[in-house]
Design brief:
By secondary structure, this protein is of the alpha+beta class. It contains five helices and nine strands, in the order H-E-E-E-E-H-E-E-H-H-H-E-E-E. Strands 1, 2, 3, 4, 5, 6, 7, 8 and 9 form a nine-stranded antiparallel sheet that branches.
Length: 212
Amino acid sequence: MHYEEFRREYTAGGLTREMLVASPLQQFEHWLEQSVQAGLEDPTAMVLATIDDQGRPWQRIVLLKGMSDGGFVFYTNHGSYKAEAIAGNPLVSLLFPWNELDRQVIVSGRAEKMSLAESASYFVTRPRESQIAAWASRQSRPVSARAMLEKQVQVLKEKFGNGDIPTPDFWGGYRVIPERIEFWQGGEHRLHDRFLYTKGKDDGWEIEQLQP
């Protein structure tokens, strides 16, 4: 396979300073809404990058589940590899790859664990099967066969019956408070448009254009 042959021009349109609003969170929500309207599959999918206590980076795709208190919200098992990495180093990065629009948004910030009450308010909205799956999985731990997970799911279904399923104390939300957010728009001949928001004094944001 000749990897160098895979290339295309980015022709979706340019990005100028005049197109941006003062708040990067509002700008993000505007772009996200455009992604939804364009029919992108999984527009809330984001790549979460963490660094563990050995300095090893790791990435995985998670789903954005909300914007609250100035941050990007996702949920996971507190015993997962990502959660353990965040416990040791809360500095993380998010990437939203909206390829069909020749766009990406890169977020750099600090992840903080949300309260059990906040997590519970979301947990009750999940499909029942997803609630049971959260109880069944000891995320990131080895398993000898999928059949073991399926057996655990069946055990939990019998345990909870038709009653409400409580929020596991080992599962919950994280909020990424951004310190830098870059908006990238692909441009013709690789002259891409890049604008970086950096949090300044008094919680204001500074905007600068970056070379491609």
